[in-house]
Amino acid sequence: MMLTAAVAYGWQPVNENAPEPAREFRAAWVATVFNLDWPSRAGLSAAQQKAELISILDTAVKLKFNAIILQVRPNADALYKSSYEPWSCWLSGAGVNPGYDPLAFAVAEAHKRGLELHAWFNPFRATISGKAVGKNHISRTNPGLLKKAGSTQILNPSSSAAQKHVLAVIMDVVRRYDIDGVHLDDYFYPYPPNHNISDGKSPSQRRAAIDSFVSNLYSRVKAEKPWVRVGISPFGIWQPGYPSGVEAGVNAYEHLACDARKWLSKGWVDYLAPQLYWRIKGPQSFTALMQWWASVNPKRPVWPGIASVRINSSEDPGRPASEIGAQVDASRKLARQSCGQIFWSWRSIGSNRGGVQSQLKKRYTSYAVPPAMPWCRDSIPGRPAVAAQDAGKVIKISWQAPDKRARKWAIQAGTSRGWYTVCVLPGYQSSVTLPASYFSNASRIAIRPISACGQSGTPGVLRR
Against a cut of 0.85, is the pTM above it? Predict the structure, then answer.
């Protein structure tokens, strides 16, 4: 059935365009390890876990975030149904089925709200002191792949068998779940003083092993689903002295075998999120580090990790929430390819630590779409046929897509002062009813298709 515009109140389709929506990646890490962010404690019922996650997603939308980075594999276990690894102890107990599939639920609920869901994997951590593991945990089925690192055990990063297992785990998720991204954290080789595990490898051999793992991961994800973004969040300093004057007690290049500069320059990631958890001023200057990272490969984005968790914390006594706002401003000025921020971690954002939400609301004044990544090779969606009808206090908008290439729909409003994004909806949606107040001063409405890689199609435009 062809769509027709309602004559009442004059919303009519017109052959016009609209400016690009605002572009910025706005995300937070939702950590499951130690129940840091979600679920709030192990053993909650499925209904309680779902309610907590929905609350996180709803608050993220209210704050105008557009992505959640959910930890789905904290220590060689799974927050999803897996044939490779046991259910995570952080859900309902080690190896205990929580009664639903958390990742499937998270993906569906995030997409329903126009949020991206990036699945976060800790690649090599295997056990945590004092925490039980399921019967089919790799520490039981193949203990020869593990190395002791202080009170924990890790999968030997230089072992080809261990890498094969981790890659199989990640690719299983890529194939079976409709995730938007694969995200790795900073745990490759362990942090000092436990970095000298007994693997018989030199620092350069360790780096070569991790380089191979990162390169293989990127290639395999792109071969399976080119639109799934691959991101890594390394320690925020590549090496002490880079850039000049920056100090660090950890040498990620030597200690962690983490050559993130190479991964970014080679294009083995779609985005890099270095953990720039320090203040703007100091021996680990946020702005100096952001500028250095952004210069490595201007064609790939650097979206800094920002430590909202350190507001009024023992790690950084007296840090005000205004520091976080200033870092958002700085990241926007210094970004070479595209803007974005990722906050560590959700609990500090959701609990409004130090009033941080007011800092974000000042800067996230309208919704934004994650930046496009055209190198991920997808097709631009076609222009939709559109219609709208005023219905008292609401406006009913509908559209008909010429193809199935739209991953999202950005609903935009045009006024005499410019355009803004009203909301972002999932690609499977074809209508929406919104408060008329959202368009009170608008003379235009645009329904813009966005591809899985973030590329814009031509919008269908309505004029009042």
Answer: yes
Nearest CA to 232 out of 122, 338, 324 is that of 122
Q: What is the pLDDT of residues 400-450, one digit of tens each?
A: 999 999 999 999 999 999 999 999 999 999 999 999 999 999 999 999 999
Q: What average pLDDT does range 143-147 have in this prediction?
A: 97
**Strand duo 394-400 + 385-391: pairing:** antiparallel
For the chain, give the mean pLDDT.
96
Token readout for 89 is: 């102890």
Strands 408-415 and 125-127: unpaired
Radius of gyration of the chain (CA): 23
Mean pLDDT value of segment 43-60: 98
- Provide the Cα torsion 91, 272, 59, 325; round to 10°: 130
Sign of CA dihedral 214, 215, 220, 222: positive
What does the alpha-carbon distance between residue 122 and residue 124 come to, in Å, rounded to a whole number? 6
Assign 2 a pLDDT band (cuts: 50, 70, 90): very low
154-210 pLDDT tens trace = 999 999 999 999 999 999 999 999 999 999 999 999 999 999 899 999 999 999 999
Say how far apart CA 204 and CA 9 lie, in whole Å.
69
- For the record, the structure tokens of 394 come out as 């609401």
Band the pLDDT of 10: cuts 50, 70, 90. confident
Phi, psi of 440 (to 5 degrees): -60, -35
Residues linked to residue 116 through DSSP beta bridges, in sequence order: 67
Distances (CA, A) of 216 to 82, 211, 331, 338: 22, 8, 30, 25
> Given this model, what pLDDT does residue 435 score?
97
pLDDT value of residue 174: 98
